[in-house]
Amino acid sequence: MLLIRRFEEKAAEAYALGKIGGFCHLYIGQEAVGVGAIAALRDDDYVISSYREHGQALARGIAPGAVMAELYGRATGPARGKGGSMHIFDVSKRFMGGHAIVGGHIPLAAGLGFAIKYRGGDQVCLCFFGEAAVNIGAFHEALNMASVWKLPVVFLCENNRYGMGTAFERVAAVTDVVEHACSYDMAAELVNGMDVLEVSQATERAVQRARHGGHPTLLEVRTYRYMGHSMSDPLHGVYRTKEEVEEQKKQDPITRLGGQLREAGVIDQAGLDALDAEVHAEVEAAVRYADESPEPDPDDLTRHVLAD
Amino acid sequence: MPTLTYRDALNQALREEMQRDTSVFIMGEEVGVYQGAYKVSRGLLEEFGPQRVVDTPIAELGFAGIGVGAAMAGLRPVIEFMTWNFALLALDQIVNSAAKMLYMSGGQIPVPIVFRGPNGAALQLGAQHSQAWESWLSHIPGLKVVAPATPADAKGLLKAAIRDDNPVIVLEGEMLYNTKGEVPDGEYVTPIGAADVKRAGGDVTLICHSKTVAPTLKAAEQLAEQGVAAEVLDLRSLRPMDVEAIVGSVTKTNRCVVAEEGWPHCGIGAQVVDVVQRHAFDHLDAPVLRVTQADVPMPYNKQLERAAKPSPEKIVAAARRVLYLE
Description:
The structure holds 2 protein chains of 2 kinds.
Chain A: H1 2-16, H2 31-38, E1 46-49, H3 54-59, H4 64-71, E2 95-98, H5 106-118, E3 125-130, H6 137-148, E4 153-159, E5 162-163, E6 166-167, H7 168-171, E7 187-192, H8 196-211, E8 217-222, H9 242-249, H10 253-263, H11 269-292
Parallel strand pairs in A: 1-2, 1-3, 3-4, 4-8, 7-8
Antiparallel strand pairs in A: 5-6
Chain B: E1 3-5, H1 6-20, E2 24-28, H2 44-48, E3 53-55, H3 60-72, E4 76-80, H4 91-99, H5 101-104, E5 114-118, H6 134-138, E6 144-146, H7 151-163, E7 168-172, E8 180-182, E9 196-199, E10 204-208, H8 213-225, E11 230-234, E12 237-239, H9 243-253, E13 256-259, H10 268-279, E14 289-291, H11 302-308, H12 312-322
Parallel strand pairs in B: 2-3, 2-4, 4-5, 5-7, 6-7, 10-11, 10-13, 13-14
Antiparallel strand pairs in B: 1-8, 6-12, 9-11
Helix pairs in contact in B: 1-7, 3-4, 8-12, 9-10
């Protein structure tokens, strides 16, 4: 979680310096969701996500330097600089993107689950999406078919309360996402997304249901993003107050886990400080790696349009 | 050589490819228990079972996306749209997921998927069921698009599409399913990207594809009676397009007419005209003319519908104009 927090802070700096272009959606505040959920997976399980996926890519074990290089658009990024912030893919980690049409990847997750079942495997597919995706047809079509066909998919809704600048309750008739599961006769659970252990345990239960019997689950994980929707957007203003953001920060998942670990005597403050310093150095190295990485070869423009 | 309907040629291609490769499956509305809305998948459920012949709800976006996801994991889905009119709902998955996945993953994730179904107008189905989408689909880098006109091409191109490692669009036609022709048995694969001369001639090139091939061949017969030898070039593949075949024919005849079922604005014919003017400008003895659907939503009324569609008469008239016979 600390790595993601520091990585995203550096990404914000690099964006301000013009090193990262386009849209850049940061995960600060939501770290416990990606980390907790991915901790419940095996290496041969699939992960697929939306455009706010840097943190999940890191949690899945993609090297910070490689992720930063992709953000920088460099040839050493896992997608060779052709994907960017919103399209991080690493097949070796079964990290299947990075998709930038809201909800568009939810059917893909069901398709990955379909392939697992088709081959008789016991892997699962973990699919992250935001609460705004719940209003789009793709979500409903995918959940229906996943349930009818008993596909081994964990649909994990990261409810950070705002689709860009629109509060979920302003545009959703049913504001408890978890309630949608009953439309599809699907298991569901409401989870505190500021508590990494709770996220991990709930995901583990969903993964077991998927792995042993192929039953999909809808998890609604309540979380909060501290930053604007993307780097181009304000942190607060017309759609939420500064006070609200500050209030939410009191639930910070990293502070919470740090406190739990201290209380349990696992680590002391000096240990936490040392960890932070270590992570700082790792992120600095990632930035250096990205900075020093080459631009893509000009011939790469026309490569990979079609498979040979 | 056995004579088969276009429908049975497609069925044979599906059956042979499913026998050949267990990663091939078919998914769509009514493909299983109902045996296919147009019976293209007849008998496949009995032979391959419900795991490989998958009936879906009416949810084109959803099952197209599930197909793409399965292809990302290495399966070879054949997604049937009951018609391409309904596939507009799935366009996000075809364009944003299937076509771009390989590129935006930096070459990591090929999507070996086939999207197929009838395209264009049938008879009196009205505006929302009578649309030819090939120019839309052919616009997209990352897709291949084929439009077979004969049973043999239907078999050969569908087999090629299923074996291709890219997303391939196969455009069929309700009005073609019952047409008959000789179809080679067993292993018969038509390369994607190769046009086919359906009738040779030296006076004018008539370029067509899919359902416009039959009216164009009729037009060529009528022209022959008038002493004009027309060459009928069936594009078969719209992306990639066989530039060499187009240019080869037009440099021989010096005159060209392009027929298509789609609307005129930004149509397939416009692309062909671009190819001709770039590669055969000095060979042209007349401007290239196009025969298309009228630039209107398809009307229901029989006479109005006939007036809207390309016809042998319209193609003959265009050919006579490029020959300066009128």
